[in-house]
Description:
Blueprint: H1 7-42, E1 47-56, E2 60-62, E3 68-73, E4 80-81, E5 86-90, H2 93-137, H3 148-172, H4 181-198, E6 201-203, E7 208-211, E8 220-221, E9 228-231, E10 237-243, E11 255-260, E12 264-276, E13 302-309, H5 311-316, E14 324-330, H6 353-373
Helix pairs in contact: 2-3, 2-4, 2-6, 4-6
Amino acid sequence: MANETLPGTATQNDNGKRKRLLLILIAACVVVAILYTCYWLFIARYKVSTDNAYVQGNVVQITPQVGGTVIAVDADDTDYVKAGQVLVRLDPVDARVALDQAEAQLANTVREVRGTFSTNASLQTDVNTRAADLARREPLVATGAVSKEELLHMQNALTDARERLAQNQALIEGTSPENNPRVLAAAAHAREAYLAWKRSGIAAPIDGTVARRSVQVGQRVQAGVPLMAVVPMNELWVDANFKESQLEDLRVGQPVSLTADVYGSHLEYKGHVVGLGAGTGAAFSLLPAQNATGNWIKIVQRLPVRIALDPEALQKHPLRIGLSMNVEVDVHDQSGKSVTDGSTNQAVVETKVYDALGAEADAHVNKIVSANLGHKVTLPVAQ
C-alpha cells in the first residue's frame, strides 16, 4: 500500500522527537543555570538573611520613689500614657504631715538665725562699752578710787562679753542669713519633705503603652518595687540572630529589609545595621555552656545584630516587643566597621519629667525663707 508507514521510519521519527525534547531540556537547564549563576554573582551572594529575629524595645519600669499605700490606679495594661501623666496615687497624708513639720522647722530656724545676726551688733557694743570702762578705771586703782576687786569683776565681765561675741560670730562669720548652714540644712529637709509629698503621685517618665501592671488598690508598696511598665512604641528595634558563618561580611550601616509575620510579606520595613553584639546568646545565658567536657558536640552559635527601624514605617505600622521578623541584609557596602566605633555621647533613653518637680521644691523653700527673712532670697541648691 502507498500510505503505509514502514516500521523503521516510525522509529526514526520517535528518536528525532526525543532528541529534540532532550536538547530543549538541556538548553532550558543551561539557561536556568546561567540565570541562577548571574543571580548569585550579582545579587544572592550580597544578601545575608535570617528568620531568627525579634522586635525589642525599652521596658521602662514604673517604681515608687517613696513608700505608701495605693489609693488609686489610673492606668491599665494596653493604655497609652503621656510623659508626666499620673499612673498610681499613694496616700499623701503622712507625707503632708511631715512636710508641715519641715516647713515649721525651716521658718523657726530662719528666725533664729536672723536673731543671731541682729544680736551680733549689740554684743559688739557691749564689748566696746566694757572695754572703755575698764580702760578708764584701771589708772584709778593706784589712787584707791577703784578697788582691785571691782577692777577684777570688770575684767571678768569684759572676758565674758568677748566670749559671747566670739561664739555669736562663730555662728555667722562668713555667711548671710540666707546661706547660713543652719538655714541650708533646714531648707534641705523641707525640700526633701516636699518632694516626698509630691511623689505620692507616681508619673510616667516617658510616652508609651502600659504593660505588666501588677499593682492593686490598697497594696502597701515600698520604694523601688516595680508596679507596671511603660514601653515607648516609637523606639523599637530588631535583634537578628545570625549564624557565626554569616558574620564575615556584616558591617555597621548596611541597609536592611525586614518583614513582620504579623503583617505578612507584602509589607516591608527598612532599616540599617547599628551594631553587633559583644557575645553570643550562649555566652550571656544564665548557665553558660561548658564545652570542656568529653561529650562535646559542636553547635553553630548565633550572634545578635541590632537593626534600627525606619521611624515613619514604624509609626504607620506599629510593632510589639517579641514579634517575629524576617531580616535580609544587603552586604554590598563593605566600608563600614564590623563593630560599633565609639559612643554617640547621647542618652539612650531620657526623661525630663522630674526636672520640674525639683524646681517646684526650690521655689516652695525660697518662699518660706523669704517670708521669714523679710525680703526675697534665692537659696543655693546642689547641681
